[in-house]
What does this fold into?
Amino acid sequence: MGMLSVVKWGHARIVFDRMVCRDVISWNTMINGYAIVGKIDEAKRLFDEMPERNLVSWNSMLAGFVKCGNVEDAFGLFSEMPCRDVVSWNSMLACYAQCGKPNEALALFDQMRAVGVKPTEATVVSLLSACAHLGALDKGLHLHTYINDNRIEVNSIVGTALVDMYAKCGKISLATQVFNAMESKDVLAWNTIIAGMAIHGHVKEAQRLFKEMKEAGVEPNDITFVAMLSACSHAGMVDEGQKLLDCMSSSYGIEPKVEHYGCVIDLLARAGLLEEAMELIGTMPMEPNPCALGALLGGCRIHGNFELGEMVGKRLINLQPCHSGRYILLSNIYAAAKKWDDARKVRNLMKVNGISKVPGVSVIELKGMVHRFVAGDWSHPESNKIYEKLNEIHTRLKSAIGHSADTGDVLLDMEEEDKEHALPVHSEKLAIAYGLLHLDSKEAIRIVKNLRVCRDCHHVTKLISKVYGREIIVRDRNRFHHFEDGECSCLDFW
It folds into this structure.
């Protein structure tokens, strides 16, 4: 129950009351109690003072580090353990999966199997989460086969993890198959499939599922409405989004939170309804969070509203002085308005504050191996072949369609020719070139990128899909883009 005062009372009794048994069980209970309430330093002090330890002692301390998201200390303790059981391995896997270290989770699973530890439900849920994070479809498919071969029950927890994995790996059809086959579907399962439809831009399917959810007697919760509002935002459905926000409290008794308002602000801002977005911010019963203001700033950037963008951008930098994206977006707004001195001042402020730009990273999975690329990357062993392929792509696009780079997103004070040279080495272009080199012509090229796709890369990917006759699926920070025959599923709205 997280009651720190009771934990301290129990600790005092164990220390001072001679009638209380001070065996390894009581020590373990106290470690677990402090870990649950987040007092990890007290838990570690008790662990260090224990006169004797058993496996439960080590697992309790490990679980405490995992709960706090302390990956380094968790792995250090895990490495020191004199023996491990499946609980130990699952705790470390969960730590990696929850803390954004999917590659480490998958590598640890290989070690786990090598020493003969049999995976459990908790194991596969953590691994499916890692696959979802990476967009590693092949690994996810192999894991699904492993689940079936080893007769691990596909209950609501495992089934929901599978739905999430397939949706985030770009296979929404397989996510739907798993969902439909689930015998028991709780609200989390429904929310996961609706959110999956949203990031793929299938708003009609999301609406259908929302209706079926209610017909099945499952009450929507606040997460359901975040998913539905996100679906509306990805499709530019302004009226539907506003109606959903309005009916939350009146029809479902759910008071909108800042996340719900943020979705509608994003919807309005991207549709160019910046005044309406500002009005909504003014009527919110709470202060807008940085995500909501960031959505408004993004709308200002798209639609060229310099005055509003400058005001919101400065406010965001004050709220989040360590967030590199806020500086860059404000700098780009200045640059788009030809305010070069102001743009440089913002970039210099980043340097003064020691803020570095988050690099664009794209990953592609090939035969179970995940390959990572950053902009201008030459670290890959096949870099020479990749850049040769990029030159070939550029030549073919220019001769077939007369493509020239869209330099709108390279908002620096430089000549257009220099801007054009800055674009072809974005990370997703490197990943696509690598996919063209190695994947069969009938296989889809699947890319996962940590940032939003720029306009030029989006346009170039559409052209590549047409000229090379390839299906290309890109998951960026906001949504999925399915490119085929020169078209994108987002309809250029992202």
Observations:
- Residues 361-488 form one domain.
- Confidence is low (pLDDT under 50) at residues 413-423.
- The beta strands are 361-366, 369-374, 445-449, 472-475, 480-484, 487-488.
- The first strand starts at residue 361 and ends at 366.
